[in-house]
Please model this.
Amino acid sequence: MQVWKFGGTSVGKPERMHSIKNLITEDGNRKIVVLSALSGTTNALIAIGESLKSHNDAEATQKINELYAHYESFIKELYSTEAGYAEGKAIIEKEFSFIRSLVNIKPFSVKQEKEIVAEGELLSTQMFEAYLREEGVNAALLPALDFMLIDADNEPVLKFTEEKLGAILGQLTNKQIFITQGFICRNPRGEVDNLKRGGSDYTASLIGGAIVAEEVQIWTDIDGMHNNDPRIVKKTFPIRELTFEEAAELAYFGAKILHPSTITPAKMKGVPVRLKNTMEPAAYGTLIADKTTDREIKAIAAKDNLTAIYIHSTRMLNAYGFLRKVFEVFEKYKTPVDMITTSEVSVSVTIDNDEHLDKIMAELKQFADLEECDKDQTIVCIVGNFSADKEGIALKVLDAMKSIPIRMISYGASEHNISLLIHGKHKAAALNALNERCFLYEDTMKEIFSAP
Ligand SMILES: Nc1ncnc2c1ncn2[C@@H]1O[C@H](COP(=O)(O)OP(=O)(O)O)[C@@H](O)[C@H]1O
Ligand SMILES: N[C@@H](CC(=O)OP(=O)(O)O)C(=O)O
Model:
């Protein structure tokens, strides 16, 4: 069985839902279809939650009315029969009456916040499943809240999904298409929770891992993972093949097309992940698997809003104890470190989550000298095949960056990644310069020298 995930942009319009129906039924194969909320809905629900948190009930009610109006007009175009429309109407009435009921719950806590954002996926999947039934498709809805669970550290419990989902599917052997919600899950208290923004990709891969799917397909609005950020760089192109490691680096370092955690369960169970374009289904897309191609530099991505911390040893500690002490502080505050560079007496790191920055700095100061932190930093990550015996790769990268100030460089930790830390204001210039030097210039040269 395959698992296909359609993101917000792919379900955001009634006609897109119509094309998805054709796509998922065309090959006649059984599949699990994971849907996100309609594009814009999760942001709208978060905004309603914000209004409620700040006790602005009138503003929240107005936002709810606007969102409701959007769904009302959506279902008018989604269904073609009166019975179908009546089902769609009943679904939105039920979910919006729940959303409206949250206005009366005081105080509006994290529990309600999680419940409200889950409504996006609950709406899209029920509406779509009713549409499939209207069209005579043999479909069933799988409630993700029955089989997706995170533990106290917010980590998905794959064993739970394997057991629960296996049992549910065992009862539905006569069904062809299974629809389920991306993003949402339960936490150990049994409450509604989620896998963080963009988490529907992660759901698809967790389900793929749990049932050891033949393949996980992530359908979006672009023809695969591009070699650079298409929102910032003009001449980008899709990459046909990536290894799990390369894809994981790109997703983690900012390639928005994929949620950073998506690769882990798929890789663990050896399930290939394919990125496909809903608007252009015939396009090859990107296949993420074990196989590698021999291109050296494959892609570039950037991760923003990082904080750089510069730590110097006061030499009061033995050199071999210093790094351990430093990292214990980050561990204590559950703050992952993205990038590290070291000299004999200093270590510089970047962090993404600066929630505990003050406390971290205070603890580090007890045994180290600190410089002022730098905010608004960006990691530019160059991904590819950089085995240790290859020459000239770093030179090419640094040559492209010759007019951009670099604060940190990391090379050699993995054979797939060179990372550079720059100020966020140089990001667009850096991505474009690297694109020119590492792809356009290179490909032109190759063509010139291989011409007959
Ligand atoms: N390297 C990249 N390759 C492809 N798309 C990228 C890349 N970096 C950023 N993107 C952006 O990711 C978008 C798709 O991701 P997303 O909006 O999360 O899709 P969905 O709503 O389907 O989940 C694309 O429209 C594209 O602008
Ligand atoms: N709806 C959620 C989950 C998600 O993955 O959405 P998308 O597939 O559109 O990125 C969000 O906006 O975060």
Q: What stands out?
A: Residues 118 and 184 are 6 Å apart (CA to CA).
